[in-house]
Structure formats: structure tokens, C-alpha cells
Specification:
The protein is about 25% helix and about 25% strand. The strands form 6 sheets. Strands 2, 16, 17, 18, 20, 23 and 25 form a 7-stranded mixed sheet that branches.
Length: about 675
């Protein structure tokens, strides 16, 4: 058996083992996966080595290939369980040097086998970072060759930046939108031969973006707090963090972004709504991007779907060809939006959106968003040659929320919250042939006509019990007829309630209908075989009641166990064979004695019963269930009509004129009264 294992950092992997379609506007990026062949003879061990992994949660998902879809009776087949155990071994770096921003720091790479690891903290509102490597010399006074790796590994796609420096020439690397308020890992390794050490001087400087204020008082407080945390030197639209003086101007023209206050409202498990304090509409201009913070860093938000919906107010845009470009990104926002960029930041890839007067609405669905701070950046872009674009402003209505299942899995699905090893995530369980992540793939979906046909077949096939009921009543087997009526009624309405599509009717609780259907089916077989045994009435009815009580108990313990049906059948067959042997020995000939009884009744009934058991146990699948199970209903009901024994010889057929008296009888007392005369 070959299993597939998926890896992802920050959120569960989005997998599609069945090859179904995802909902429209959903973003799907493949996860890193490997295939492992498991054998029952030996234990298989596979190692996956990840050097410099990103900090945070890592998720692993494993699954088997697609099942055959057979409906197997519990106990007829032997299940084959596969155990998957994931162990993580971590080699940690201790006492890692810290690179202070704006301060050149000399370091030494001991040897090519021992690279140098340092880290630098990226402050909030950092628009860019510049890393510079200078004064590179070896211990042998030769020209050095070093390679610098910035960032960590995130599967499946790694956004590590590589800088190769040859000789003593200064080399540098500029990063746009580095991850805010996180440690950035930097590794320097020597490319030289031998064990010569390398001395280098490293400098990291940041360009900090000063956000502008809005009309909200709460936003004014939050922005002042964020400016107090930021490094000094955030003057003008952007300035190096190492120099300059702090600027407290609240003018929107002097800021590089406009931050809108957003409140997170937790509605339920994996259900969050983001509410804008200044109203659902946000102003968007061409001077600086408008920024919204979507907090998804609680650790329990990555099991749902993040939905972002943008709606442009056409009346607010005076320019016909203007476009509002938006980017949804994690860890850091996209601060320079234009038509050519693809919403990429320093170490991640965002998701682009755009609205215009011709297409005023856009939606984005991020499946299983990673645990982090998410940002929505919006900016107005105008065609070249329109001078009034600098003063133009657009109003965009933003609806953003986190939901367990998008659109609640639609009409043909059910949203389920699943818990694995303490982690909670959501998934859709589709029905009626629908598939996909949100049950939107109708490739194998059943039409409404097919659903109605399936319901009619599974329900109306139970009417084949009517001949069996008529035969039982005609032969004075009233208890058996009552059991068959019970079975027909509950089997009909259980299958009417069990349908996956729109043709559903439940007269009572589903679990109650299922229990009554299973109970009636097994008891019908029980009373039929005991009736064929022709034992004494008192013993037969005692076995009826006792067997029914034991069957009810076993069904409560395990409703789908194979011995719930096989046990009563075998026990009743033992009683029937014993009674038949006793009758044959007593009469000195075979029982039943009539060959017509064997040829025209018993053999056809037994044949129908065996065919019904074969269809039920070995032929049913998810695709053909509605007609194979209907055949099971028909065959079982017909076999009962054939197997019921004839009525007792001393009983006459139903004579309705004798049984039902429709007249009065007047009784007269003709006794004479004697009186004494004195």
C-alpha cells in the first residue's frame, strides 16, 4: 500500500487526493508531499531533513489511495489498519549572535564546515531592509568567497534569498516588505577550500514606513502606540532607521500608508468576523496604500477559510479607467502596489485582487490560512496621462471573515469540525455524488431526477412485502404478518429519510428510523424460520418474544455487526432442522413430505434468499446502492412469501359470513311466574 504524506508550515496542507475541483475564487497552492510504500512484512522508516526551518507550527497529513467504494458488511471482511507515526528530531542553535540594525558588526566564519549564524529583529512598519557585507578577508590573506542565505525554509516553496560575494568588493541585498516583528535568520558560509577562516563585516539597515492617521480616535491611539514602538528616524514618507529625527505630523500626504482600524469579533469556533470601525467602506487613493490588519495569530484559526470580499462604489470613482489593486499577504503587507507586481513580499507570495468600474466586485478565498498577521493593502491606480488622478479617491466596501466551511458546504454538503491530536479544523462531507473542497464539484453529481428515482426504488421496493403479508394473513399467521407490516413501514420511511439529496422525508428522528428498520429486518427472518419449524404454538411464541428481546439488545450494542443477523438465522435454522428431523422420525418419512412443497415453494424461496444475501453482502457499492439494495428488498420479501408453511389442516379458510355476524338476536324469557294466592 502506498501512502502520501504532505508537509506545510503554518497551517494544515491543502490536499486534493481525489482530483476534484475547488470553489471559484479559491487560492490553492500545492503542498510538499512524498510517497511511501508500506509493507506488512517490515516496518518502513522515511526521513525528511529540513535545514533552517521556519519557526512556528508545522503540519503533516497522510492519506491512503482512493478506496474502491464497496459497502462491506461488518464481519465479512477483515480490515487492514495502517499505523502512521511521525517523530520530530530538532537540532537547535544556541547563543546565536544578534545583528543590531544600523551598527556594523565584524564576525568570523571559522571554516567552510562551520557556517556563521546570526539573527536580526525586523521592527514593525519596516518597508524595506538592506543587508550589506564588506571587509571580507581570509586568514590566508586571499580573496574570500562567501555565500549568504537570508530567511528560513518553508515547504513546499522556499523564499530564501541567496547572496554570493566574491573577493573584497562590498556586496549588498535589498529586501522589500520583510516580515514584521519577527527574527530574520542569516547564515554565512565560506566557499573556500581548506580550513581557512573568513572575517566579514555585516550591516543591516531598515527603511521604516510612518503610517498616517485617520478620523478614528481608537486608530489614533493605536497608531501613536505603534510609532512609539518603532525605531526613531521615521521622518517623511520613509527614512533609514539609523538616522534622522522622529516626526509626529499626522498629514496623510507625508505618510506611506493609511491604516484603517479593524476589530476582530470571535463568533464561534473557527468563526471570526472583522469589523471596520470607520464603516465598511474605506477610502483608497493613489498617494499611499490603505492597510487593514486581519489578525489570525491565535493558533486556532488556520483550520478554516479566510474570505475577503471587495465591492467598489462606482459613484465614488470619477475616472472611468481607474483600478483599485489589492493584495492579501501574511507576515508583512505589500506597500508598493502597481500593475506589474504580483503581490510578493520579501519571503512570501501574496494573493492579488482588483476591482474597477467594469468589474466592481472581487472575492478571495484562502483555504487553511497560516497562523500569522494578515494584511489587506489597497491602492488606486490610474492610466498614464490623467493628471487629476493624484486627487482622485475611491470608496471600497470590505467584507472579511473567517469561516469553518465556505458557503457552509452548499446544499449538498455538511460542514464538520474535526479534532486530531488536540488540533481543530473543518471539512465538508459531500453527498449525492457532489465533491470538492466545498461540495461544488458536480462532475459525478446525481441529477434531481436520479435522486427521485433512487428514493422511489428504495421505498417502493418495500411494497413487495404486501404479498408476504397477504399470504401470512390468509394462513392465519397473524403475528408474522404484524412483523412484516412493521418491517415494511419502517424500512420505507428509513430509506426516505436516508437519502443524500433533496428527495428526503423524515417522519421521526433518523437514528430511531434506522434502529427500527434493522430490528424489523432481523426479527422478520427470525419469525419466518421459526414459523417454518412448525413447533408447538406456546413454544413458538416464547421463542418469538425471547428472540426479539435478544435481537433488540444486540442491535443496541453493535447495530452493523454481522452476527446481529447471522446469529438469529443460524440459531433458528438449528431449531428448524431439529424440528423437521423430529417430525420425519415420528412420521417415518421425509418432512415436508410433499414433493410439490419442495419444488414449488421451498427451493424457490431458498434460492431467492441466497441470492438476496449474496447481493447484500458482496455486490453493494456506493454507486449502485440504490438499485442493489432495492433488489435485496424484493428478493427477501418474495422469499418470505414462498417459505411460509401452509396453514394447519384443522383450520378452515377465512369465511367472512361466518366470522362476522351482522344481525341481532333477541332472547325472550318464557319462564312462568308463580304467585301464591291467599
Amino acid at each position: 500500500m502506498e501512502i502520501t504524506v504532505h508537509f506545510r508550515h503554518g497551517a494544515p496542507p491543502v490536499i486534493n487526493p481525489l482530483g476534484t475541483r475547488f470553489p471559484a475564487n479559491a487560492t490553492v497552492r500545492p503542498s510538499y508531499n512524498i510517497s511511501i510504500t508500506l509493507s506488512s512484512a517490515v516496518q518502513n522508516t522515511t526521513f525528511v531533513n529540513v535545514t533552517s526551518p521556519a519557526a512556528g507550527d508545522w503540519f503533516i497529513a497522510a492519506h491512503l489511495p482512493e478506496a474502491a467504494g464497496r459497502i462491506e458488511v461488518k464481519g465479512f471482511s477483515t480490515p487492514c489498519p495502517y499505523m502512521f507515526q511521525a517523530d520530530m528530531f530538532v537540532l537547535r542553535l544556541t547563543d546565536m549572535p544578534v545583528l543590531e540594525p544600523g551598527v556594523p558588526m565584524p564576525h568570523t566564519v571559522v571554516s567552510p564546515a562551520k557556517p556563521l549564524h546570526v539573527k536580526v529583529f525586523v521592527p514593525k512598519h519596516a518597508a524595506g531592509m538592506r543587508f550589506q557585507l564588506s571587509s571580507c578577508v581570509t586568514s590566508e590573506q586571499r580573496a574570500c568567497a562567501v555565500r549568504v542565505l537570508l530567511g528560513s525554509i518553508t515547504l513546499p516553496q522556499s523564499f530564501q534569498k541567496i547572496l554570493t560575494c566574491m573577493g573584497s568588493i562590498n556586496c549588498s541585498l535589498a529586501l522589500e516588505s520583510p516580515p514584521w516583528e519577527k527574527w530574520l535568520q542569516i547564515m554565512v558560509e565560506s566557499l573556500g577550500t581548506g580550513n581557512a577562516s573568513v572575517k566579514v563585516e555585516m550591516l543591516a539597515s531598515f527603511t521604516v514606513c510612518r503610517p498616517g492617521s485617520t478620523s478614528s480616535f481608537l486608530n489614533f491611539i493605536s497608531l501613536n502606540q505603534s510609532q512609539a514602538v518603532a525605531r526613531p528616524g521615521a521622518a517623511g514618507s520613509s527614512a533609514p532607521a539609523a538616522g534622522g529625527a522622529p516626526h509626529n505630523s499626522s498629514s496623510q500626504r507625508g505618510s506611506c500608508l493609511q491604516s484603517q482600524p479593524v476589530v476582530r469579533e470571535d463568533l464561534d469556533v473557527v468563526s471570526v468576523r472583522y469589523r471596520l470601525l470607520n464603516g465598511p467602506s474605506v477610502p483608497v487613493n493613489t498617494r499611499s496604500p490603505t492597510l487593514l490588519l486581519l489578525n489570525l495569530n491565535t493558533g486556532m484559526d488556520s483550520g478554516g477559510s479566510l474570505v475577503v470580499n471587495l465591492l467598489l462604489n462606482k459613484t465614488s470613482v470619477s475616472l472611468t479607467n481607474a483600478t483599485v489593486v489589492a493584495c492579501v499577504s501574511a507576515a508583512s503587507p505589500v506597500l508598493s502596489l502597481n500593475a506589474t507586481r504580483n503581490c510578493s513580499t520579501a519571503f512570501s507570495q501574496g494573493y492579488p485582487l482588483s476591482v474597477s468600474t467594469s468589474s466592481a466586485e472581487a472575492m478571495l478565498i484562502v483555504l487553511y490560512p497560516q497562523t500569522d498577521d494578515w494584511f489587506l493593502s489597497l491602492q488606486l491606480l490610474c492610466p498614464k496621462g490623467q493628471g487629476e488622478c493624484t486627487t482622485a479617491e475611491a470608496k471600497v466596501t470590505v467584507f472579511s471573515y473567517l469561516t469553518p466551511c465556505f458557503n457552509d458546504c452548499g446544499p449538498y454538503g455538511q460542514c464538520s469540525l474535526l479534532r486530531r491530536h488536540g488540533y481543530l479544523y473543518a471539512g465538508c462531507s459531500c453527498k449525492a455524488g457532489w465533491g470538492g473542497w466545498s461540495c461544488t464539484d458536480d462532475t459525478k453529481a446525481q441529477s434531481v431526477g436520479a435522486q427521485n428515482l433512487a428514493t422511489l426504488l428504495l421505498t417502493l421496493s418495500n411494497l413487495m412485502f404486501l404479498p408476504a403479508i397477504a399470504v401470512a394473513v390468509y394462513r392465519y399467521y397473524l403475528v408474522e404478518a404484524s412483523v412484516y407490516t412493521y418491517t415494511m413501514f419502517f424500512s420505507t420511511f428509513y430509506h426516505a429519510c436516508d437519502q443524500p439529496g433533496v428527495a428526503v422525508m423524515c417522519i421521526m428522528d433518523y437514528d430511531t428510523l434506522q434502529y427500527c428498520d434493522f430490528l424489523g429486518s432481523v426479527v422478520s427472518i427470525w419469525v419466518t424460520i421459526l414459523c417454518m419449524a412448525r413447533v408447538k404454538k406456546i413454544l413458538k411464541y416464547v421463542l418469538f418474544i425471547l428472540g426479539t428481546l435478544l435481537i433488540a439488545m444486540s442491535l443496541q450494542l453493535d447495530r452493523r455487526g454481522v452476527w446481529n443477523m447471522m446469529g438469529p438465522c443460524l440459531f433458528a435454522l438449528v431449531i428448524m432442522i431439529t424440528a423437521w428431523v423430529h417430525h420425519g422420525a415420528k412420521r417415518k418419512h421425509c418432512y415436508p413430505s410433499s414433493w410439490k412443497r419442495w419444488v414449488f415453494y421451498l427451493l424457490p424461496g431458498i434460492t431467492l434468499a441466497f441470492i438476496a444475501i449474496s447481493v447484500y453482502a458482496f455486490m453493494e457499492t456506493n454507486e449502485n446502492y440504490y438499485y442493489t439494495h432495492s433488489i435485496w428488498h424484493v428478493l427477501v420479501a418474495c422469499s418470505v412469501a414462498f417459505l411460509l408453511p401452509p396453514r394447519d389442516k384443522h383450520k378452515k379458510p377465512w369465511a367472512w359470513s361466518q366470522k362476522l355476524t351482522c344481525r341481532y338476536q333477541i332472547c325472550q324469557n318464557d319462564r312462568e311466574e308463580l304467585y301464591a294466592v291467599t
